[in-house]
Amino acid sequence: MLKLLSLLLVIGTMLTAADLPTKKTLNLAAIKTMVAAAEAEAAKRNVEVTLCIVDESGNLLFFQKADRAPLNTIQFAQKKARHSAAYKAPSKNGADAVKKGNLEVLAFPDFFPNQGGLPIQVDGQTIGAIAASGAKSEIDEAIAQAGLDALFKP
Questions:
Q1: Residues 6+ apart with CB under 8 A from 64
Q2: Could you state, in order of their start, the residue ranges of all structural domains in the chain?
Q3: What is the signed CA dihedral for 45, 152, 70, 66, rounded to 10 degrees?
Q4: What percent of the chain lies above the pLDDT cut of 70?
Q5: How far is CA 21 from CA 18, 25, 71, 113, 141, in A?
Q6: pLDDT (0 to 100) of residue 60
Q7: pLDDT in tens, 87-129
């Protein structure tokens, strides 16, 4: 009787665990891969930038300011990354919305209308964001894109 009860308990636990969804997250190896590629792209373009990676909730996972990157890039990189994580879209979309005259968006939480942040998406889910700041906005985005490309290369 005790063996049967134990078996039922184990089977019940396994069924419950099987129903839980699996969630992909950014680990240290993935972060290092993205950072190395972003640094290489910045070096190739001869620019010094601040890099930021956040999780899907905008919590800081990685931050690095290059020696000659301006101080304002400390905030800009974080804001670009948080925008991309929160809105599951490139921060350029925010800049485009403002350019189109949609000023209400400036009151949205974590909204930052400046190109350079990109969401990190796996299987249709946003698991974080990467951003660069310190060069022209298009170059910042290209540096962030290099990080994403390195993470998802086949």
A1: 35, 50, 51
A2: 24-152
A3: -80
A4: 88
A5: 8, 13, 41, 34, 32
A6: 98
A7: 999 999 999 999 999 999 999 999 999 999 999 999 999 999 9
Cα atoms found within 13 Å of the Cα of residue 52, Cβ hemisphere only: 28
The C-alpha R_g of the chain, in whole angstroms, comes to 20
The full DSSP string for the chain is: -HHHHHHHHHHHHHHHHHTSPP-----HHHHHHHHHHHHHHHHHTT---EEEEEETT--EEEEEE-TTS-TTHHHHHHHHHHHHHHHTS-HHHHHHHHHTT-GGGGGSTT----S-EEEEEETTEEEEEEEEESS-HHHHHHHHHHHHHHHH--
* The token pair that represents 134 in the structure block: 């310190």
- Round to whole Å and give the CA distance between 83 and 61: 15
Q: What is the pLDDT of residue 75?
A: 97
Among the listed residues 80, 76, 105, the one whose alpha carbon sits nearest the alpha carbon of residue 92: 80
Fold assignment, 24-152: Beta-Lactamase (3.30.450)
